Amino acid sequence: MISKQLENDLLTRGFTRRGFGxxxxxxxxxxxxxxxxxxxxxxxxxxxxxxxxxxVRINSNENPxxxxxxxxxxxxxxxxxxxxxxxxxxxxxxxxxxxxxxLKPNYVxxxxxxxxxxHTSVIAFASPKRSVVIADPTYEVAEMVAKFIGAKxxxxxxxxxxxxxxxxxxxxxxxxxxxxxxxxxxxxxTLTPKADIEWLLANKPAxxxxxxxxxxLHFAGAPACTDLVARDKDxxxxxxxxxxxxxxxxxxxAAMARPDLLARLAGFSSGALPSTGLVAAAASxxxxxxxxxxxxINADIRSETFxxxxxxxxxxxxxVSNKFMLDVRRPGHEFVDAMQRENIWVGRVWPAWPTHVxxxxxxxxxxxxxQKALLKVMA
Length: 379
Ligand SMILES: Cc1ncc(COP(=O)(O)O)c(C=O)c1O
Description:
Elements: H1 4-12, H2 17-28, H3 38-43, E1 56-58, H4 69-80, H5 87-101, E2 108-111, H6 115-125, E3 131-136, H7 141-149, E4 153-157, H8 166-172, E5 176-182, H9 194-203, E6 209-213, H10 217-220, H11 226-230, E7 235-240, E8 253-256, H12 259-266, H13 275-285, H14 290-311, E9 323-327, H15 332-341, E10 344-346, E11 356-360, H16 364-378
Parallel strand pairs: 1-10, 3-4, 3-5, 5-6, 6-7
Antiparallel strand pairs: 2-8, 7-8, 9-11
Helix pairs in contact: 4-13, 5-13, 6-7
The structure holds pyridoxal-5'-phosphate.
Pyridoxal-5'-phosphate (PLP) binds near residues 61, 113, 139 and 186.
């Protein structure tokens, strides 16, 4: 049920009664908002009948390693107790995340993956009067939600170093309600320097927030920005267990921000979280070696893939993440189709870079199959 307080908030922020009614109907019906996520976006290039079981799936930035053994060990007990609501588990995860980031527990809200937190942040801080500012290309979901609620979307190209151009973003949108930054970016796998994020926080229009999506940060080993959250900036940091932690299907994630910013997201919450996701995430966080180990596995396979691409004179964007953009020197969708005929499912194409296709870094065996098919398709 949508609260009176939320209704007032939406109406004073410039939503029409019609726009508000549409949201209210969906939320009161308990429906998922009609937005999308990586899996759904990846499915758009899928034929009827789905992906063959023996296909190489390097199309949706999943982690082929799956959950760590410590997470698997706690999942069964959580499933066995699944007849119970387990609110305590949410508190355990919140505190574990807060500890690991040097935050107070009330600066962390748990979500079933970070996608829902992304959706709700856009609804909470953008409106028909306050635009959403994004880099181009970037993860498409903030733009989709903005369009759904009737907020203007302002896009600025990445810099020559493939970072979000924060100065151009501020200049382009004096009416901004929300700046969405993804670092490392999906799809380019490139970082926006922390100094630029600090500049954006210091120079953005009053009343706006920065939504920093750190879904892929663990792969890069770059400095986190949660210390800026601790310093009470207008910043929401998103984290997910879907990527490095290999839990995309199990679902856990979080938003980290000042309590007053998190309170703005709470009105759209979908209620209790899956206990399986909560316990598996908390168990994963306790494994101190997990992030550096998995980061190295991914970086090693990525470097080997780049060495192969260099040897064969392919051009690609120098990613520090678990995916990269490959220049396929033709309309990207033609390459996607040709690779599917080789049973290799690569990612999608962004309109800003029509001859680039996103490739997720899979296992060594998967990347060997990718390389073989690539030479055939590009011959
Ligand atoms: C940049 C980015 N943010 C957020 C998400 C949401 O993922 P999840 O809801 O599984 O945490 C994804 C998924 O691929 C993503 O690529």
